[in-house]
Specification:
Length: 109
């Protein structure tokens, strides 16, 4: 399990779980570069069905966010580290992971 994971909350309300990859060009202009997971659980309702939609993938290394947009930054907890590890390895989230996302990162659809 990776211990260098962090979670940020941005001004727009999005929470990102990420592993930073040092990149001097990006870092010099205040951009964090790395692998990231947008943390969310949304309840989606359509005419024909309804259900929960969850965080489902980990990005390849990309420019993730500007440090100027961060309102909170902290180390990831064990549940978040598990989610990151699963998604970065292409493993589906289980019931406990989804419950954690619903409890902590529920978004209005």
């Amino acid at each position: 399990m990776d211990t260098n994971l962090e979670v940020v909350t941005l001004k727009n309300g999005i929470s990102i779980l990420f592993k930073e990859i040092k990149n001097s060009a990006s870092n010099n202009i205040g951009i964090v570069y790395g692998n990231g997971v947008a943390l969310y659980a949304k309840y989606i309702t359509t005419e024909k069905s309804s259900g929960w939609q969850y965080t489902s993938y980990c990005s390849d290394p990309v420019k993730l966010f500007s440090v100027h947009n961060v309102i909170d930054r902290r180390s990831a907890n064990d549940a978040e580290k598990t989610i990151f590890d699963k998604l970065s390895n292409g493993t589906a989230l289980n019931k406990e992971d989804k419950e954690y996302l619903r409890s902590n990162y529920k978004k209005e659809a």
